[in-house]
Structure formats: structure tokens, C-alpha cells
């Protein structure tokens, strides 16, 4: 129902990790959660946003939208340049399949950053 609700759903899986992980929440047309899963596990400084896997799984689940999330073990929730570029690439790929990218949330210790809340052009 909101970026805050999505972040609260994911924080238990991602807080206090010493490495980055990429998770996806799959949504139906009414934005109800129909699935949640970890897509990749990375290093302490990066994780892969696997666009092909995300699009394939969204199609398999018949999702109308997704929320992408990853964590920053550094404690700084601000997205970097690579986060913004990958968000744009994923959004374009999803659009070709009529699937919306509802948000990209970056989770850090005690805080989160929502692309949708910040109204960035990537979302």
C-alpha cells in the first residue's frame, strides 16, 4: 500500500546483513502482494540486478507490477549512480511486457530510500 509498508515487509530479511541482496515483491493489478523472493546475493558492496530473471519470474507469476529492493550494508540508503542506471534498465525491460516497476527501495540500517517517494524519473 506504500513504500513504507514494502520496506517494513523486507527489513526483517535484509537488516544486519554484511552483503547486498536483491529482492522482488510481485504485485497483482490491485497492488496486492502475490509473491516475494530473493533474486541474487552479492558482496559487501554490490549485488547483481538480474533483469532477465526478474522479468521472467514476473511473467511466470502473472504479476502486473513489481517492487525491487536491495540493501546497502554500509548503512547509507542513498542510491548510487549504478542503482539509478539499473533501475532505468529494469523499468524499460518490464515495460515491454506490460509490467510496471512500482518502486525500487534501498534498505539500510534504520532507514530506507524509495525511488517512488523521491519521484525520480527512473520510476
Characterize the structure shown.
By secondary structure, the protein is of the alpha+beta class. A five-stranded mixed beta sheet has the order 2-1-3-4-5, with helices on both faces. The mean pLDDT is 91.
Largest sheet: 5 strands, mixed
**Mean residue pLDDT:** 91
**How many strand elements?**
5
Low-confidence stretches: none
Shape: globular
Distance between the termini: 16 Å
Question: What is the oligomeric state here?
Answer: single chain
Portion of residues in beta strands equals 25-35%
Brief synopsis:
With 123 residues, the chain is α+β, with helices and mostly antiparallel strands. It has three helices and five strands.
Labels describing this entry:
single chain, 123 residues, alpha+beta, five-stranded mixed β-sheet, 3 helices, 5 strands, globular
Please outline the helices and strands.
Elements (H helix, E strand, L loop, with lengths): L2 H12 L6 E7 L5 E9 L9 H10 L4 E7 L9 H15 L4 E9 L2 E4 L9
Parallel strand pairs: 3-4
Antiparallel strand pairs: 1-2, 1-3, 4-5
